[in-house]
Amino acid sequence: MKTIDIRPLTREAFAPFGEVLETEGAHSFPINAGKCVRYHDLARIETTGEKARPMISLLRGEPYSLPLELGMVERHPLGSQAFIPLSEHPFLVVVAEETPDGPGEPIAFKTAPGQGVNIGRNVWHGILTPLEGVSDFAVVDRAGEGVNLEEYFYETPFLIR
């Protein structure tokens, strides 16, 4: 089994797969008579299809323990998928580049408090993997007709540590 070391999540490292959602370094401006700051346009929400629309959901995830065996990744060919944490617990973000034979070797990132991600349309990624405690998330993704889930099972699983 091949081992994958977890990296810290940064905008630069995650750019090929989507956007990191965080306030640090984001374009911002005051609103509501200066009583609020808007961190503006942090991610591109993608949907395809005539009857497609963005939707918002809430998820509550049980924590996973490390090291973690990864045998499957998935992608959503019809829309992006944003995960916005509503708790301070970190979570694992696993992504993989597309190759001629399917998803390549996974890359694992660990979020810092306050970081979320928007995974681009058709990007291979792991499942939601909270760490250190039960975690709530707001999720922005695609609703509409069509099959928007494809799974890939690796011949040999990876160990993420």
TrEMBL record:
Gene3D superfamilies given in the database record: Ureidoglycolate hydrolase (2.60.120.480)
GO MF annotations, alphabetized: ureidoglycolate lyase activity
InterPro entries hit by this protein: RmlC_Cupin_sf, UAH_cupin, Ureidogly_lyase, Ureidogly_lyase_bac, Ureidoglycolate_lyase_dom_sf
Keyword Lyase: yes
The protein's enzyme class: lyase
Enzyme Commission designation: 4.3.2.3
Metabolic or biological pathway, per its Swiss-Prot or TrEMBL entry: Nitrogen metabolism; (S)-allantoin degradation
A Pfam family hit: Ureidogly_lyase
UniProt cofactor(s): Ni(2+)
Top-level taxon of the source organism: Bacteria
Keyword Lyase: yes
Catalytic reaction list: (S)-ureidoglycolate = urea + glyoxylate
Record keywords, A-Z: Lyase, Purine metabolism
SUPFAM superfamilies reported for this sequence: RmlC-like cupins
Family: Belongs to the ureidoglycolate lyase family.
Subunit and partners: Homodimer.
Function as written in the Swiss-Prot or TrEMBL entry: Catalyzes the catabolism of the allantoin degradation intermediate (S)-ureidoglycolate, generating urea and glyoxylate. Involved in the utilization of allantoin as nitrogen source.
PANTHER family the record matches: UREIDOGLYCOLATE HYDROLASE, UREIDOGLYCOLATE LYASE
Name of the protein in question: Ureidoglycolate lyase
